[in-house]
Amino acid sequence: MLWVTIAPIHYPWDLPHGVTLPYRFAERVHLDEVPSWVKTDDALKYLSHSLRTELEDRARYCISVSYDADAFGTPDPDWKGDVPRSIQDSACEQIQHVGFSMWLARPSAFTFSCVFHGHQVQGESLMRHVFQTSPICPLPEYESAELKIEDFVAAGDLARTLRTLGVQGTLRASTQAATRAITETGWTLRFLILWLVIESLFGPEDAREITFRLSQRLALFMGTDSEETRALFRKAKASYDWRSKIVHGLRLAKLNSEKSRELLLDLVSLVRQSLRKILGDQVLTEQFDGKDREEFLDDLVFAR
Fold first, then answer.
1. pLDDT tens digit sequence for 156-179
2. In angstroms, how far is CA 115 from the centroid of its own chain?
3. Residue 95: which domain range?
């Protein structure tokens, strides 16, 4: 039986020149027009009033995943995790990969708030299940960003790499944490979760001198010259100091709105650029997900 999982996109602008529909992100994963059955009363009645209005009036595009399944809840034969999951859950993850990859390519208002599962019976699409999900919450600096064709190309490459990550690897944990972070509206929790991403990527296993070594590793990995490396080291170390203050329950009275905005934007940039560099290089992807990650990061200091 042919099934499709669909996430209508919140994106207020027209698609950029060069993006024609259906636009392929990965095998069976496309950006397409929202099908008519998604906007029927039977499909929308389970959603909140505000979301129904949004979908009826503004939703033009969707991320869609098509696949074959015997029924709703059929186990995914390709899933390698210890606990079985359905083919529909795997389709949802592929949609999340696209949304997160678009954020890595260029943070914007491109996001989704609900997911529909449907299947075809005698050529007619029928809705079987719908649920609301937490959308990506763009920072004010990114709300007006318009996507370009190169962002769609980059997102497709990143989404295909995310699909290949191991179930228990460092990168899967890092990207899942980053995906959670960008749905948070509160500064404190978003900041802390983004630091979990940095720590999972660059943190030493033995936890010795963690502030210095973590900041040094990140700076050596991302810096292109000695001046940029020193600046990144100082920025990462100062940011980690604020992370420690939050974790240990210290008051943040001295952290004004301008400074908090600067800290969060810098941290977002570090997370995005780190993940883009790693996921955009197969050798680095394997290095960070492999057993020699610690040795590789320690050896960065000798690479210059």
1. 999 999 999 988 889 999 999 999
2. 16
3. 2-164
Residue 240, both tokens: 């980690």
- pLDDT digits 0-9 by tens, 259-276: 889 999 999 999 999 999
Same domain, yes or no: 191 and 231 = yes
Q: Give the pLDDT confidence of 69-100 residue by residue, as tens digits.
A: 999 999 999 888 888 999 999 999 999 999 99
Q: CA–CA separation, 122 vs 120, rounded Å?
A: 6
| pLDDT tens-digit series, residues 67-76 | 999 999 999 9
**DSSP bridge partners of 121:** 124
Q: Do 104 and 87 have their domain in common?
A: yes
How many domains in the chain? Answer: 2
- Final residue of a domain: which of 114, 144, 164? 164
The whole-angstrom separation of Cα 97 and Cα 156 is 9
* Same-domain status, 96 and 238: no
Best CA proximity match to 69, nearest among 25, 7, 124, 118: 118
Among 146, 164, 182, the domain boundary falls at 164
In terms of residues, how long is the chain?
A: 304
Contact (CB, 8 A) for 94 and 159? yes
